[in-house]
Write the C-alpha cells for this entry.
Amino acid sequence: MKRMAIIFGSFVLSWIFLAGIQDETPFYIPAKWPKPHYDFTQNPLSKEKFELGRTLFYDPDLSRDSTISCANCHLQYSGFTHIDHSLSHGIDGKIGTRNAPVLINLAWQQFFHWDGGVSSLNKQAINPLTHAKEMDNRLDEVLRRLNQSSFYRNRFYLAFGDSVIETASLLKALASFTVSLVSANSTYDQVKRGESSFTNQEESGYQLFKKYCATCHQEPLFMKNEFKSNGIALVPALNDYGRMGITNRKEDSLLFKIPTLRNVEFSFPYMHDGRYKTLKDVLNHYGNLHEQQPYFSKELKKLNRVLTSNEQKDLIAFLKTLSDQEFLFNPLFKYPKNERNASFQKN
C-alpha cells in the first residue's frame, strides 16, 4: 500500500492507494471511512485509466450524433449533476423522467440510478450510452468510432495493454474516472478531523440533523445503500414506480435510492424528479407529510412536523457544511486539455 501527500491550496490530504494501483490517481479512502464496495481487484486503478476515463466522460462523440457527453448531465461544480432543469435532457432535446443523480463517492455505493437497476459501476455506463433519451447510441457504434481513432487506440493500449477497444475496457475506463470522484474535505470533514469547528448555528443544525435525518443519511457518507419512499406520490406524466420497475414487487412501489447529501447546497433541484428548487422546499415537504399517506417510509414519521423558521435555518446551515469546494473545483476532474479534445475530430 502506498501513501502520498498531495497539497491542494492550504491543506494536505492523505491519498491512500490500494493494492495494484501503481500510479497517482485522485482516489483515496478518508480516515475512519468504511471499506468501499467497489472491487478494485476487477479494475485496478492507474493514472492512464483515470485520464482515459476522464477524456471519455467529456467526449460527445460517444453519443449518436456527437452532441451529448456524460458531462452534459453531470457538471462538476454541481456535484456532477445538472442544475438548470428538473429532469435530464438528452439527445435531440429529449427529456427524461428523472433528475440526474450526483456522482459522489461512488466507490461506497452498491446500487446505481434512482431505482438501483445497476449493481456494478463497471456496467453502469451502458445505460446512459444506449438510452434513447440520453446518448442514444449503440455499443457497437461507440466501439467502431473509438477503434477508428488513433488517439484512443494509443490511450487504451497504455491503459489496458491492448489497442483493440472492447466493451469491457470502455466501461472500466469510464468507471476508473467516476470511482475516483471522492468528496471528503468539507467543513464537516475538517471539524471531524479536529481542524475546524462548527458555528453555534451549524452545531444546532447538526443536532437537528442527527435527530431527524441521520437514519437515512448516515455519516460519514450521508447516504445509505437502501431504497425508501419519500412521500412523493406517483406522477402520472412520468409513470415512475422507482424500485418496483426493477424488481416487479409491489412492496417496492415508489421506493427510490437514498442519495448522498454531500454538496447538497449545489446539487439542486432535489428529489428523483427534481421538483424542489431549494432546501427549504425540501424541509417543508418532509414537515408536511401525513399519516394517511401510504407512500412514505416509516423512517420519515419522526420528521412529521414543520420545523420552525430558526430550526430550518440552522439545519440548512449544517447542510452547507457538507459543501466541498476542493472537490467541486478540483482541476483533476475538469475537462481535460489534450490533443483529442482540441478538436473532437475523428481520425
